[in-house]
Input
Amino acid sequence: MLKVAICGGSGYTGGELLRILSSHSKVKVTAVTSERSAGKKVTDLFPSLYTYARMEFEPLKPEKLLKKADLFFLALPHAASQEAVDFFYQNGKKVIDLSADYRLHDPKVYSEWYSTNHNFTNTLKKAVYGLPELHRGKVKKSSLVANPGCYPTSAILGLYPVLTKGLIKSGSIIIDSKSGTSGAGRKGSVNFSYCEVNEGFKAYGIAGHRHTPEIEQEISLIAKKKIKVNFTPHLLPVNRGILSTIYVDLIKRSDTKTMIELYKKIYGKEAFVKVLDENFFPNIKNVAGTNFCEIGLKVDTRTNKLIIVSAIDNLIKGASGQAVQNMNIIMGFKESEGLDSLAVHP
Amino acid sequence: MLKVAICGGSGYTGGELLRILSSHSKVKVTAVTSERSAGKKVTDLFPSLYTYARMEFEPLKPEKLLKKADLFFLALPHAASQEAVDFFYQNGKKVIDLSADYRLHDPKVYSEWYSTNHNFTNTLKKAVYGLPELHRGKVKKSSLVANPGCYPTSAILGLYPVLTKGLIKSGSIIIDSKSGTSGAGRKGSVNFSYCEVNEGFKAYGIAGHRHTPEIEQEISLIAKKKIKVNFTPHLLPVNRGILSTIYVDLIKRSDTKTMIELYKKIYGKEAFVKVLDENFFPNIKNVAGTNFCEIGLKVDTRTNKLIIVSAIDNLIKGASGQAVQNMNIIMGFKESEGLDSLAVHP
Amino acid sequence: MLKVAICGGSGYTGGELLRILSSHSKVKVTAVTSERSAGKKVTDLFPSLYTYARMEFEPLKPEKLLKKADLFFLALPHAASQEAVDFFYQNGKKVIDLSADYRLHDPKVYSEWYSTNHNFTNTLKKAVYGLPELHRGKVKKSSLVANPGCYPTSAILGLYPVLTKGLIKSGSIIIDSKSGTSGAGRKGSVNFSYCEVNEGFKAYGIAGHRHTPEIEQEISLIAKKKIKVNFTPHLLPVNRGILSTIYVDLIKRSDTKTMIELYKKIYGKEAFVKVLDENFFPNIKNVAGTNFCEIGLKVDTRTNKLIIVSAIDNLIKGASGQAVQNMNIIMGFKESEGLDSLAVHP
Amino acid sequence: MLKVAICGGSGYTGGELLRILSSHSKVKVTAVTSERSAGKKVTDLFPSLYTYARMEFEPLKPEKLLKKADLFFLALPHAASQEAVDFFYQNGKKVIDLSADYRLHDPKVYSEWYSTNHNFTNTLKKAVYGLPELHRGKVKKSSLVANPGCYPTSAILGLYPVLTKGLIKSGSIIIDSKSGTSGAGRKGSVNFSYCEVNEGFKAYGIAGHRHTPEIEQEISLIAKKKIKVNFTPHLLPVNRGILSTIYVDLIKRSDTKTMIELYKKIYGKEAFVKVLDENFFPNIKNVAGTNFCEIGLKVDTRTNKLIIVSAIDNLIKGASGQAVQNMNIIMGFKESEGLDSLAVHP
Output
């Protein structure tokens, strides 16, 4: 059994790591940290995680943790993750970082968007952007995975096939995304209190959200040229799920059927990407609680735009599930181990 | 125009006072206070209150406020209200206090349930419990109204007719109440964050909620004997509304029709109490956004229990609307002035 | 008092007309029709409309209704409205039609998108598209108003200032709209049942929604050239509200401040359009239950796109409220009469 | 692999059977029926059940089904189940019936509450009421299990310990239950449409719900005397979960600690019943998506009442999960096989 530690385990992504790993046949969680909740039982914060009834949160003491585990999931806040990642990595451990700290290859871009410097640029160079559908080979050989952000996962998976095939005008990409409220994390804040969110809907971070450079980095790599996008996130009054509606200009005339065939061909062997048949479109309900990404496609023949709709669970394929998927790849486990739950409906 | 000040105007009850008074034909709001938001515009906290676009929150300085208004609504936290109420009252102002500080006649009971002493017991004696349907005459002559709590409003209005007629066994009363989340106030707290409340439902404060002695005080006065109740509140994943399901043992056999007739007779002239016809029962949707209380009745002939279901909007009939109703009574305005909005459906 | 009849009063727009008119000082509702609910009390279908406790639905018999009212609101299904509108109009009555039957000036476009012929093309020529902010003068002189659709209202109000000033590339318009579920009407359908909608989110009618030609007609008129748009509606798990996120390419470089100034200038005297200050954006919560439209603006200087966010209540500014606004204009009443409620928060 | 057929597979309980069985290591679903959806793919109705992409619904032809499976789950409407159950049972198959048709031992009580006769009273005598925590031994030996109703499961599990120990007054039991909307089934109905349920809350079926005699049958058997209860269901605006708040009079003075000890002792070995520690109470969120039942307890020493709060997922422990649990018992599989998922939070 692989010994695994979770650093920063009291938030929603930490909780999801715990839950997913509890049914993983090859893994044992040996430690889970939380500064604020150190000494509390896991079930005090997550009453439904009955299987962890005897486990307690401990403070994050890297030296002490080193001996406890061979693979580390870090679900710490941005910036706070930099040093811990470096420490575990330099000490020969496998590290999967769920923060944004090791996602952007260029430390200048990082400091521009995250308002803090990157102090471990050598380690940064070792990090692989852990979107398995794009970088599986690199992940397999890596000991340090930067787990992708939730919005970028939905956007990049939606855009990859048409970009890699060079079918769209690169200046035309608009990504209109809508996320469930768990994306804001588990925190006390009037803005994310029940009454303020319920029966509401709004855009936020327009033309300034931090996931923009992450999306641009990856799609520029796919397209092999610099691409800028318009990315607008919105806050949905649901717990989970991201749905991105993506608008792109096709270079040549095409139709829906052709596009679906292309996507099915490219994603045909992927366990977690479901390209839907014509006239079917994703609903976040269908992927909530799962590691799946659904993609629906429509060519608007009146304007020759392709509309791509992709949906994921922001906490699973957009965070903890993808992290476990990356672990499975690194460790040579079956890629879907622990991750094959279907959505509970309704 | 009556000049009115609102002390503690940044929470949900404060916002509702502002909103209701904005369409009141005889009142002008001249000041609104908030310690934390002093200097901010009302519309910074309540973007939808367009009519207050030029008004700012100010700190609560009683001396300064004295000159600004003739009637004071206090929507301050419990204990914080004691002194301010006393000050405005002793300076000859009309005061309507939305906190619990002046509701319990017996200061010992107050300190037992609220874990703090009452330091203004002489002023306390002057306070009238402002449930107009029971105490309209006293409210009319009063300058100090203790505005009832939300749960007590729903429970007492439900129980009043059978209690005043002596039809039920006083030891048998069970009040199972369910409240929308706005009852917890406008605050940043993980427990009341969207994700924790949404798709959830739970009981809380079982056998220990502070509204228990308030209910017991009033129904004991009605029944003219000491009554203890079982009161269990629950947290509903909706913004607004309280629905109380009340179980009582009838002393004699009766039936639903008879009970409805009694309730209709007693509440027939009340503008804000709607006794429903047989086989109709309240839904919080029907009263949300309004000052109405709906009551539905059923006698279970198998067990000879009467089941009373009452519904109100916790922030309106359970707080700010009832406060305005009390103001209307004190000032001799039409009792429903500013309060006749119907529920927006759906 | 103006005598008013509502044809098709059992759905959500009919209910909203009843509710709004109940507080209108110059109007008396003399008849309300429903085929399916004829003979039932209004309060059987709308328990919260206490003020209509004595009114019953009647079947739609045009001859009989003629004598009962001077102005007719028609909230009938599409196609079903054609003949009734013609009848009341030809008999000299004022008519405000909430269906789509008289919105599209070109009957060919109508039959193409609505799969039925228009049989009253002469009457169609008399109809004015009742978006007061664009066509107030025409509405004032008209006896037949085609009340705009909900999505078009949000889209056109958002686009009007930049289009009328010729600031954007007309081929670039993308309208990504999200609507509350009441937009689907009051009906029994598995797809709109609580469990299927709750915790879900999806796009629908991609590149084929019937509101597309309505938007294109109006914005082409503003721009004085043929414009095609990409319009994608989504289904939000809330009761009310439409938020449209609109992406347009600016012809010249500009900035957010300049755009806000332009919008404020153009809409400055409008009672129901609120252009928000910089860094503020609409939330459907702020307009739900009201006739207001909120507009927020942001120029993305990286891509020189303007992002326009507009929000309305789909049943009020998007239907019944706008219908009453049109009535007020036609009749010479104050334009905001009956329509000045603020949103209930939370 | 055990071959299993699901009769009536297009509703929510059918969908849950499919989902749960898809991860069951000892079972293969060989047929699923639906009259209305015969010929459709399972994924047309349940897009998230990817693993059934190649399976279609077929009409319910008992003769034909006989050969296909060894164990039959019937998720048919009440009354419709009678004959099919009898047929499969008489033909030597194992049958687990999720309808109410075989739950009530007395056919007179059945016809009184369900307004239809029972035509298979001999088969009825063979049926075991499949609440494993009470009747595991009988279930084990049985070929015909009447799977309990959702409300009864929550109520009976809550009451069993104090009833079997004779600690409460049998005339005093009040069960105030609140259910998520999936309890109403998957159907098109205005009353259960999103807009009507969302932001609403109401009681229904007061003193007349069909689960009353089922609860009374079982608790009378436990207490070894006839017991009548007051049972009031309410409709919660959530998808899943039942929370029952149960009030009983204790015969002797007791306290919370003692009661918790008793419940822990009685349920200590049960895989699916979680008795919570003092001051912890159930939340439907903690059990939604799982087969667990949470129970919290509080003695109100002021009134000597015990308040029992129990929570389950109405579709799992209250239906399909319990059905699989019963199958596991009958077949000698591990009782929790396929059923050990934890709740997804949030």
In short: Chain A touches chain B through 20 residues (CB under 8 Å). The mean pLDDT of chain A is 97. Residues 20 and 174 of chain A are 33 Å apart (CA to CA).
